[in-house]
């Protein structure tokens, strides 16, 4: 049983259960972990029904810097995955229960008011090995925060309201569930000859900041599940709607739940084809327990409730995609292909105004883009739409009969250059994990 930490405070004071330094490497800080495992010791005990704060590093563990150089992205260690704060013990929670997690607030650190978005070969869902026009460069864009608004010197003529949220909220798996994850993901890797890109367990990059025995550390590092994919317990499900005022519902698999949080985003599109606007910051949460909630809610995977305070942009230009590949071959209701087709059309449209492919790609990941499933019943096509808010631009992006003028294109092209590096795709092999 973990030792409860109950700092002295007034009745109205919200306790901070984990503190971090966003200027220091994650692998040097206490109360941080980069793997899922049921034996990672809890660092504090949550008071059920009471608010608490958790300070979080950005997903990379402070590897990315606020500058105009993308070298740090080339050398980014993806094997460490997400640097998560916790885990936290939830009293009276038992396997079969469900945690109701209220997201009361998510903010950047006051002295760290910036985030970043990344593109790279084989990172995300819109890179194409077979089409030179769709091969992605390594880039980094820095986004500055002004209250709840953000803009980037590397993606000009755009600003929008953020929807800050935790990309990762997860409970610890049981040993049985941990084994199921390894089995099914290993089988998929074999079936696809490694093309699925599953992040299988490995000791390199594993980290637990607690003081534990060498034997336990070795076991966690060798067995622990990587944090890249979202799974039944939550984890890296990257729900952009999980902003202030929303609720997450997560299953409990071990006594005490062992809840962890991290990978904060300032904003993210629906679909997040590459990284969101990643940031370090502070999450304020409140947890309640629903006894035997898995059975009561018929839960097979996480659920969430949207927020009444989410910023909405109502005027959008929308692109649709079908389940037809770029050679014209019809597929049977391939939803990912339909999404990619909608996104590629949107990227080409933004390129027509003078944005680079990477700048357009970043907008489709970082901005409050709305993706919808339009139709699934009309075989063989699966129809997806992708909507870009027109209001986030300081110029008119709507279709017009006279077309786009050279002056408009020049205005974009002459803006600040995005830090980019072209690397050999073999060198960039480490970018095949999604975050």
UniProtKB/TrEMBL annotation:
<protein>
    <recommendedName>
        <fullName>Formamidase</fullName>
    </recommendedName>
</protein>
<dbReference type="Pfam" id="PF03069">
    <property type="entry name" value="FmdA_AmdA"/>
</dbReference>
<dbReference type="InterPro" id="IPR004304">
    <property type="entry name" value="FmdA_AmdA"/>
</dbReference>
<dbReference type="GO" id="GO:0016811">
    <property type="term" value="F:hydrolase activity, acting on carbon-nitrogen (but not peptide) bonds, in linear amides"/>
</dbReference>
